[in-house]
Model the fold of this input.
Amino acid sequence: MNDPSQSLRDLSCADDYDPNSMPVGKAREVIARFLTPVSAAGRAHVRAALGRVLAEDVVSPLDVPAHDNSAMDGYAARFADLKGDGEVTLKVAGTAFAGAPFQGSLKAGECVRIMTGGVVPGGADTIVMQEHVKTDRDRVTIGGSHKKGQHLRRAGEDLAAGQVALKRGIALRPADIGLISSLGIGEVTVYRKLRVAFFSTGDELVSIGSQPKEGQIFDSNRYTIHGMLTRLDCEVLDLGVVRDDPVLLEKAFKDAAAAADVVITSGGVSVGEADFVKDLLGKLGEVVFWKIAMKPGRPLAYGRIGAAHFFGLPGNPVSVMVTFYQFVRDALLKLSGRDPVPSLPTFKVPCASTLKKAPGRTEFQRGVLERDPHGTWNVRVTGEQGSGILRSMSEANCFIILPTEQGNVTPGTLVDVQVLEGIV
Ligand code: AMP
Ligand code: MG
Done:
């Protein structure tokens, strides 16, 4: 078990530890030190296990394939009967179709009509493709040049009995569900879901269904966060909107931390008068850092309240999503038992837009990765990049990541993109 207090003490002694302006990479590293994955697990029916994290290896109880079988439609023969380069005529002794094997064993001078997937009969060791034979009633004439064992799939070739078919720590995808079923296994052991409680903070917020008064806005962060957590297969606990009132906030913090493994809030982490989140975190638990050298998403508090991890995300809707995908996602996957935690796919493509960027912080601009008429992939920016413009995120299919030292970007420059499709 990690000792969070010890980790925090070690951390504050490090030379480059500045909780007031943490570089992106350092912040990820710091969070990772505090994460101890869930260990409780239970059994789940294979259908219900989609998206769940395997808590134990799945070991194959059988050979896959179970029998030597044919990879082609043709004839199963004894290699010893085939002439090196001349023709030979064999008697067709029967058939071996998928699910209906040939009963008995091949004798010298015999072959068996076999279809793809058919069990190779005893005595046969070679498959001759049907395109390479001439048939005449119950006789076939086969030309030369065959290899012993050709077009034959061996029992246990894909998986031998006792071999690990799927490793602990993966989240099950449809292919995995199929693979488990192909082994005749009906239940698997999966980790319990991570419980994540979240709420929005702000006097100006109303939930959908209420009528905003003058100066009030609809809460969107709670709905975005709900969506992002659901995609990560977490158990979600929506605690609503909490006013900028230290008494109400303290209660919400305590309730959330008592009920969940992770608490996520949005808003109230900057330095405005009504921004109580950081102070409360310090009062009720430990603040590990509260600012990151990034744009958008500079105020991001990370700490602990009792056994719960706490992420205080910024209030601006785009900053919420950027900080979630850059920090919270990996932490939640690690805590959920994913091992290894899969990275978001990142690669370089030419940028089709001019990008404004000042050195000093890592920027995550919202981009559209698309193919030009010549078939080459490039990325353009999704218009205005203000951190309150959620449409810039909604239109995006990737983040354009501009490193700390990077200045303005001119069209044609290679930039890093991180693909969101299929992930968000
Ligand atoms: P704050 O960090 O609380 O000062 O919030 C920064 C900006 O984000 C303000 O303009 C807020 O109105 C806005 N904001 C905060 N929380 C939300 C929310 N849940 N939904 C939409 N906008 C929000
Ligand atoms: Mg606020």
About this structure: The CA atoms of residues 372 and 378 lie 7 Å apart. The radius of gyration is 30 Å. The domain at 346-419 is CATH 2.40.340.10 (Beta-clip). The chain has four domains: 4-40+192-335, 44-59+162-191, 69-153, 346-419.
